[in-house]
Each structure stands twice: as structure tokens, then as C-alpha cells.
Design a protein that fits this description.
Blueprint: E1 9-12, E2 18-23, E3 27-35, E4 45-51, E5 57-63, E6 68-72, E7 79-85, E8 92-98, E9 101-107, E10 113-120, E11 128-136, E12 142-149, E13 152-153, E14 158-162, E15 170-175
Antiparallel strand pairs: 1-2, 2-3, 3-4, 4-5, 5-6, 6-7, 7-8, 8-9, 9-10, 10-11, 11-12, 12-13, 12-14, 14-15
Amino acid sequence: MGETDLVSSYTYDTAGRPKTRTLPGNLTTTIQYTPYDIYHASDYRIQNTTTFPGGGTKTELLYRDGRTHSVTGTAVPDSVTTYVYDPVSGNLKTTQTTAGQTATTEADWLGRTLNAVAATWGDGITPGSRTTTNIYNTRGQLTSQKTTSGAEQLGLAHLYEYDPNGFGWLYREALDSNGNGI
């Protein structure tokens, strides 16, 4: 191979998961998979440690179903994710805190996102939040999406209408310019 060849190489473990990635310039990223229950028998988690070129690390603790529990390391901001089922609605509320900022998502039992709340800079002095709310019809199709900050709506709501013949195809999409939801 000549000096101008740009070759990347990859290796995989016996489970078919990425193990190393080497980019031109011999920049290698490695991933180590460790069953976390080797160390904590009551925690059914898996630990993945990625080492990037230059030595920075990212360690992820995952539940066995693949959901993230936490992320730490020298190459990423620390992050913790919690999952709680609302006892009244049965909806799953997921909260992720990264570098002191919290984002919360609520999903129904079908996995549809009902609302998502993310931290914002607010007025530059006081932190604020931005909420995106989704509304679905009885067929489970998204019919409306709006974003607010406090009581103030940010932009126009998006409206969605589906094929009137019942095939489920998106028929129309519009902005709710008059605010009536139609």
C-alpha cells in the first residue's frame, strides 16, 4: 500500500460486536464488553468501556435490555438515566441528567412519546425548560405536535392528517397558523 491509501480496519468479538476500529494514521478505538454482574451480582447490567485514540474513555452501564443506566469517563460528560412507571397512567418516564442538565421523556405503553422536557438557558440568568407535546388519534397516528417554554408557545403547532380512505398514509401536514387545531 502506498502512503496515500486511506484504509480503515475493524475487528469483532465472537458475539459479532465491534471490538476495534483503526482509522488512517493508526488511530485505534477499542471497546471492551464486561458483564457487570461479575462484580455486582444483584445488578443485571453490562459494562462497555470504549478507549478512544489519545486515551480518552467512555464507560457505559447498560441494563440487559440495552437501555442505558449511566455514562462516565474522561471523554464524555457524566450521565445517569432513570426509568420509572407512573402508577396512575402506567406511562414510562425516562429522566436523563447530563452535566447538571435534566431531560425527561414520557411514553405511553405503545412506546409513543407523549411529551419531552429539556433544559434551556431560559432568559440567560434563570434556567428554563422546553416541552414538546405530541397528541395521537385513536389509530395511534401523530395528529399534533407543539413546543412550549413555560406558558409561551414556541412557534406554530404542527398538524398531521392521514389518508381519509383508512390506509394510514400521511395525507397532509400543516402549521396551525390560527391556533384552532384544525
